[in-house]
Specification:
Length: 162
């Protein structure tokens, strides 16, 4: 049950505990959907890159396929897989050094690559060279940086464990 007290919305839970109503950003389903959407985005990007690479290899063409975006998607997909399989199980007992400084560093490395992609494609956008492709890569890099900020906010990066 929700009620307003001194201008703040409060909620009474089934066990009669009273708590403030959470904002949309702090609701469990919002957080899970955000994490799942970003994870699905990186996994889908990686799969599309693999399919494009195989098609390019079968056709024997020399069309360039951005390896930076595939590398970013790979790093974030590996992080997701290990986080789901290992990280969620070890949260109570504490994380090992290989997880903290190996796996949790992967999103930071992908963020550095994303900054590089921003710089290179920003220059291409300014000079007018390949504008649609450069804009798409910039969008991808911005989404990568936003995902890294999300992981930072939820203490999933190695700087939070030291």
């Amino acid at each position: 049950m929700l009620y307003q007290e001194n201008g703040t919305w409060m909620m009474v839970a089934p066990d009669s505990k009273t708590m403030k109503q959470t904002t949309l950003w702090h609701r469990t389903w919002t957080l899970l959907v955000s994490y799942a959407a970003a994870s699905l985005f990186f996994i889908t990007t990686l799969l599309i890159w693999i399919v494009r690479y195989v098609i390019r290899d079968i056709r024997k063409t020399n069309n360039h396929i951005s390896s930076n975006l595939a590398f970013i998607a790979s790093l974030n997909s590996i992080f997701l897989g290990v986080q789901v399989i290992y990280g969620n199980n070890q949260i109570v007992y504490g994380y090992s050094a290989w997880y903290i400084w190996g796996i949790c560093t992967l999103p930071l490395i992908s963020a550095l690559i994303a900054v590089w992609v921003l710089i290179v494609n920003g220059a291409k956008l300014i000079t007018g060279e390949r504008r649609p492709r450069a804009a798409g890569k910039i969008l991808f890099a911005v989404l990568t940086l936003l995902h890294t900020v999300y992981l930072f906010y939820w203490n999933l990066l190695p700087i939070h464990y030291s």
